[in-house]
Design goal:
This protein is an all-alpha fold. The chain is 65% helix and 0% strand. The radius of gyration is 10 Å and the shape is globular.
């Protein structure tokens, strides 16, 4: 069961799509590490990355 995204997650999700598309991070794990390093709380990182997993798989950037 995935947590629902909060309105404040919109920007990091959009940025995550760009980072994954441009291969600026090494898949969703790399994105999670980048968000955690930036100070995002664990639950928020999981919510953001979880929302992008299916997109990342479909686009070849899991």
């Amino acid at each position: 069961c995935r947590s629902r995204l909060a309105p404040e997650d919109t920007c990091p999700v959009a940025a995550g799509i760009i980072a994954l598309s441009e291969r600026a991070v090494n898949g969703t794990q790399g994105l999670a590490e980048r968000l955690a390093h930036a100070g995002y709380p664990r639950d928020r990182v999981q919510r953001i990355v979880g929302s992008l997993r299916d997109w990342a798989i479909a686009n070849g950037t899991p």
